[in-house]
Amino acid sequence: MTARSRVLPAYEAWKHLRGTTIGRIVTTAPDGTVDVFPVSYTVHDGEILIPTRLGTKLRDLATHPETVFEADGSDPTAQCVWSVVVRARARIHPNPAELRHAEKVHLEPLVDLSANQLVVLVPTSVSGREYRTR
Fold first, then answer.
1. Measuring CA to CA, which residue among 131, 118, 130 is closest to residue 44?
2. CB 106 within 8 A of CB 47
3. Which of 18, 74, 91, 102 could be a cystine partner for 81, CB 3.0 to 4.6 Å?
4. 4 CB neighbour count, 10 Å cutoff
5. Is 109 within 8 Å of 74 (Cβ atoms)?
6. What are phi and psi of 57, to 5 degrees?
């Protein structure tokens, strides 16, 4: 079976991002080492909000705020899978509206329930692809 792919327009990429809550963020450590972390997230006002706590991910983003975020999923109705990549700049000190939104949507950390920080990704570019499975 051969999958057909198509580049997603930005509005469809954002629609997919709003339809799921799990993604991956790429960080760069002070020594240049790259890492990937699974995260929970929500979309708010064209930005991506990620709960976290003090630790490696937060330190890396504070040191190197340029990052890449990726989410993917499937749509059985449309018989396709998709992937969206967001290049962004991380902001560690969110504004009060972002904090209220994260609380309102009950944004829960993926693993660590003691998360007390919020990373905001300000996109510089969004790209996506959709792959038809039939």
1. 118
2. no
3. 74
4. 10
5. no
6. -60, -50
> For tokens 């009950």, what's the residue?
106
Which amino acid belongs to residue 134? R
pLDDT along the chain (134 residues), means of 10: 81 95 94 93 90 87 95 89 97 71 59 70 97 85
Distance of CA 59 to the CA centre of its chain: 17
DSSP annotation of 91: E
Q: In sequence order, what are the residues at sequence separation of 6 or more whose Cβ sits closer than 8 angstroms to the Cβ of residue 39?
A: 22, 23, 24, 25, 50, 51, 52, 57, 110
Angle among Cα 70, 82, 49 to the nearest 5 degrees reads 35
- Burial pattern 93-131, b for ≥16 Cβ within 10 A else e, equals ebeeebeebbeeeebebbeeeebebbbbbebeebebbbe
In Å, how far are 1, 120, 127 from 45, measured between CA atoms? 39, 11, 18
Dihedral sign computed on CA atoms, order 15, 22, 108, 52: negative
What is the CA 61 to chain-centroid distance, rounded?
A: 13
